[in-house]
Amino acid sequence: MREQLVTQIKLGVASGDLQVGEKLPSRQEIARRFKIHANTVSNAYQELNEIGLIEFKPGSGFYVSDENAESLEQNLNLDTLITRFFQTAQSFGFSQNEIEESMHIRFSAKPLKSFLLIESNKALSNILVEEIRDSVDARVSWISFDEFEVEHAELNSNFVALFDEQPNIERVLGADEKCLFLKPGSIPSAMAGETRPAEDTLIAVVSGWEKFLILAKTILVAARVESDSLIFRHTDQSDWKRGLESASMIICDYLTAKELPRDPKVRIFRVISEDSLKELRDLLTTSN
Question: Are 117 and 142 in contact (CB under 8 A)?
Fold first, then answer.
């Protein structure tokens, strides 16, 4: 339960459902709502506080942290940034002509019409690749982080990865390399317009990615759906379609939905937010 709570809050912050400065429910309120021990909530909040995602204000409670407020310098204008760039480049021995020529090449070059997804979990990468392919007119392939760490300097593509890979990837990126980090889909957006199934009906959750099953359970339990009403199927199992005909709703990822065509009970939860998919499309548009 602690891990589920931490995951749910992380997703809420990453997708924007929880805004910077927003106060979180008290530990006692969370404990009552989900019928768990208050210590479990305390441990989850402590973990989030230690990684800087939330902060505790004495006498008030926990809030979503504004982690950039103190770390970023204030009042920097474009001229100041450009001047610093030239000074830094010249300190490494580059002449002004070399810097200007490099900048001209950089700004005149068009982004490649291909994306390389950096993701070590194969099941998750298969889902993400399908979501991206369905949204952009470009070639999409994937690579594990270990392979990327060794080969990134030789790769010629637009790098993309999920938001939680940012610290690891930025650690190995070269000075002229960039990666677009994808935000997760918003839980309220995914459930918008859906009617809550009757309590005596079954809801099936199906995916080839183990964490999708865990995440879906977290979301549904948070929506006060009884766990006894849920059935879970992993597509690695040969009989994963067994019992789905009895479910009133089938929640699955984008890739699994292709295995259940024309089934009106299917509800797709996209891993990537629409905002991030739009960023991918805009990136291709600017290359034209």
Answer: yes
